Amino acid sequence: MIRPKHLTVTVPLGLAILAILAAGEANAAQAAKPAPAQGAKPAAPAPAAKPAATPDSREVNLRAYVELLRSDVRSQKVAILSEMMEFTEQEDAKFWPIYREYDVELSKINDDRVSLIQEYAKNYEKMTDTVADRIARGALDLEARRNALKLKYYDRLKTALSAKTAARFLQVENQLLMILDLQISAALPVVK
Predict the structure, then answer these.
(1) Is pTM, for the whole model, over 0.70?
(2) How far apart are CA 94 and CA 160, in angstroms?
(3) In whole angstroms, what is the distance from residue 175 CA to residue 170 CA?
């Protein structure tokens, strides 16, 4: 029986993303916790609750998002793509130059996303309807640009390789991007 290959290799990527985010939250929580007095009995652990987002914790989380978008996630993506795509030598030689061009263009979109997240963080406490609208439209524009980019490179890969191979790339890339998007979105506070 032939077993289909699933994107289970994303566990290391997901764990790396979670580690970056957890480190940011742990640093913020640790900074907010007062040190026990000399000789004092340690307090019983408090029930688990999500700490309120302070300006310091938001800054730490913002740095984590930036790190996430610019970190070695790219190298992990390359390893995952290599395993999932199962290229022949000829396909490999055609795919990677196209992928590198795609990644450069995606990086520009991610840089714009970082700027939008920074604007959101800067305005979070004093969010107005005008700013909220600008940020929401910016997020929708980034999503549209990323989809247009994927379409552009799907067509290029379909021409260089095959529709089936291009579709496989699109499927794996979408899964990887969704994992990254979910981690970032889940950690951003909801507009007040």
Answers:
(1) no
(2) 7
(3) 9
Q: Which long-range contacts (CB under 8 A, 24 or more apart) does 139-148 make?
A: 142/109, 142/112, 142/113, 142/116, 145/109, 145/112, 146/106, 146/109, 146/177
Question: Tokens 């979105």 sit at which residue?
Answer: 185
Biggest distance spanned by C-alpha atoms of the chain: 72
> CB of 47 within 8 A of CB of 111?
no
- Tens-digit pLDDT profile for residues 19-73: 444 444 443 333 333 444 444 444 444 444 444 455 566 566 666 666 665 565 6
Distances (CA, A) of 108 to 52, 55, 101, 105, 177: 32, 27, 11, 5, 15
| Cα distance between residue 74 and residue 110, in whole Å | 12
Between CA 33 and CA 189 the distance in angstroms is 21
